[in-house]
Design a protein that fits this description.
Keywords: Acyltransferase, Hydrolase, Membrane, Transferase, Transmembrane, Transmembrane helix. InterPro entries: Acyl_transf_3_dom, Glucan_succinyl_AcylTrfase. By secondary structure, the chain is mostly helical. The chain has one domain. The protein starts with 11 loop residues before the first helix and ends with a helix. The N terminus is likely disordered.
């Protein structure tokens, strides 16, 4: 069943949020490069205490930013399906997500992963390439394809959710946080933190309950008008809740262990993620719901930046390998160079014939 599309003005605040989240992705991976979490194509493990600060940045980022991406993706999914119908929607998702995924696997990954092959004498590169197969940061596209197909299947069997404004109530938020924390805790019994899924390349499968539920909430938020109806005070309360939950729960992560530590971690991540997402959503809606030519340029190229940024970061990592400096200084230098370079290369990539259809 095809629903009547809803006419709405462009939400520039969400475009601007996508820009900020993309910057956070780049910063996150630069922090991984120079911190103490060696989960990237090129790393220089920290030799000083500032690496711990980068690890904290990674921890706080990881708690909410990819869930926020899935929420935004879910928010735009019902409207896209309404406009295009089921078959066109699926085809569009496979083009917009599947082709960049294949491009990364076939063209970009051999370049960014070549450093790991150095010194492996006697092993042909193709053997190493297949043995270390994973989609890198394009796991996001991989998972999003699954979510989009699941949504299309659901819509093929059921009528869409009714379109009506319904304010998001505080008790629903609290129940969601507690429910997400409980499900995450149970999920991490078979899928503990640090689990890596080979071939699929999921770097953080312990967060899948958050990702799936955020995508679903984004779909509901579109139908219920939650983005537009969240009161301004909810933004302030969101930031306060994020700060309080971190001040109370994060220290406990360092003094507890076993199941208790896992429970505290699940509760903090859930509370922090929801609080930050509400805070940032309202703040951007109230303060940054407009866009000039520069903002439009950054928004138009944000997805391409996400796809190509590993190539830029690995290249800069090798280029500055000679530099002797504390971890946080190298982080700052590489990040300052990487951001404009990523957007410039993204611009060149989208200038290729047919690229804008995909990117």
């Amino acid at each position: 069943m095809k629903a009547e599309p809803r006419t709405r003005t462009r939400l520039y605040a969400i475009d601007n949020l996508r820009i900020v989240l993309t910057v956070l992705v780049v910063a996150h991976h630069v922090a991984v490069t120079y911190g103490n979490i060696p989960l990237w194509f090129y790393t220089e493990p920290a030799k000083d205490a500032s690496g711990g600060l980068l690890d904290l940045l990674v921890m706080f980022d990881q708690a909410f930013f990819m869930g926020f991406f899935f929420l935004i993706s879910g928010f735009f999914t019902p409207g896209s399906h309404d406009r295009k119908g089921g078959r066109s929607f699926v085809r569009d998702r496979l083009i917009r997500l599947g082709i960049p995924l294949l491009v990364f696997l076939v063209l970009l990954r051999p370049l960014v992963n070549f450093g790991g092959f150095a010194g492996r004498e006697g092993m042909p590169y193709w053997h190493y390439y297949i043995g270390s197969w994973d989609p890198g940061p394009m796991w996001f596209a991989e998972v999003l394809i699954v979510f989009a197909l699941a949504y299309a299947l659901w819509r093929s069997r059921r009528a869409p959710l009714e379109q009506r404004a319904e304010p998001l109530r505080a008790k629903w938020i609290v129940l969601y946080v507690l429910g997400l924390a409980a499900v995450t805790f149970l999920w991490r019994i078979p899928v503990p933190t640090g689990t890596y899924v080979p071939v699929l390349g999921l770097p953080s499968p312990q967060f899948l309950p958050q990702y799936a539920s955020m995508f679903a909430l984004g779909c509901v938020a579109f139908r219920r008008g939650w983005f537009e109806t969240l009161p301004a005070r909810a933004g302030r309360l969101g930031f306060v809740a994020a700060g309080v939950s971190s001040a109370v729960l994060v220290p406990l992560l360092f003094v507890t262990g076993g199941a208790l530590s896992s429970a505290v971690s699940a509760l903090w991540e859930s509370a922090f993620a929801v609080s930050m997402i509400i805070g940032l959503t309202v703040w951007f809606r109230e303060r940054f719901n407009r866009q000039g030519p520069r903002g439009r340029f950054l928004a138009d190229h944000a997805y391409t930046v996400y796809v190509i940024h590993p190539l830029v970061l690995v290249g800069l990592g090798w280029a500055f390998r000679w530099l002797e400096a504390i971890a946080i200084v190298k982080f700052a230098i590489v990040l300052a160079l990487a951001l404009p370079l990523c957007w410039w290369i993204a611009y060149l990539a989208r200038s290729l014939p047919g690229a804008k259809r995909v990117l």
